[in-house]
Amino acid sequence: MPEAIYIASVVGAIALYLMMPRHGYNPRTIGALLGAFTLGGFWLVAARQMPEAQQLGIAASGAPYYYIFSALAIGAAARVITHSKPVYAALWFVMVVLSSAGLLMILSAPFMAFAMVIVYAGAILVTYLFVIMLAAQAGGPESGGEVPEYDRVAREPAAAVVVGFVLLAALLSVAFLRMDPNPAATTNLATIRNVLTRRTAARYEKTLAPDQWTALESSILKPGELRNSERIGFDLFNSHPLGLELAGVILLVALVGAVVIARQQVSEPDGEDATT
Amino acid sequence: MALSHFLLTGAVLLVLGLIGFMTRRNLIIMFLCTEMMFQGVVISLAGFSRFHLNDTGQTFVIFVLTIAAAEAALALGLIVLLFRHKQTLDAQVWAELRG
To answer: Model-level pTM?
Structure first.
């Protein structure tokens, strides 16, 4: 198994180096095909040696979805870092976000999936596209629509690819070790299905009755009867209240900081002041 | 489907974001690659949460999302300010921190 990891890392590094933007002839297709074959070959090797202790209880009919979403995510990520136009890179990143939302759905985390799509693809990426539009308008007419120099050529691609894939080989050699789950968790399929998917509405009428408030905690926190969003909500407010408050403070500070930064006056080269 | 497969996807996304951050010179794309590193971490966290049947992994993803949004807002504000100074998105022009 470690040999497969090292071989896949080396070939993947070569494939990504071929895909980097450069002057002159760009062997991008060769790099893409080589990377696809590396990933497929590594998956074949890993599928044959799947460790028994790491089973997640996902049905066998769900396995193709993992491969499809992973291939999409990795391919789109490779295009994000190798495409020379910023707008296309942002759009490929939307593809990465959607694929990782699919992976999160397979992992029985539907709240995470739609939170990803709404917050990342819907808010953060749209902000990125706005800023790309604002910051690129000065460069467009002068260069005649051509991509500027700093986008067309990668900066030190060989060193970056080597460093990155050494890190990847180290991470993967740990990821494929034997890991034991939490002893309180079981890998029994039936129990997993109970714990993760069932809900009942009768719980809520019971909790709203005032004379049962002493039994509130035991009646709410039955793990078998809550949906994913509800369980995350309870965990967030039960176990991480301080983190929640701090997250709110961080958001406020970021808002104030962004307004302060954006309001600074910068004198333009033609003598006029620029403010937002 | 084993945990290690999801960790593989998370690790590859993290490393691709790292390589993109070191390779690109466009300031906006550099920060986009840090967002991709967050994506890799999110997938690994969700995989571990499912493996140990512990909800804290998914709760932490909410915090990661919050920090990513705050960091994106501030980074983009800084980028717009830097662009107004030098009229270019090249990170190389800021290589010498002077004045």
So the answer is: 0.84
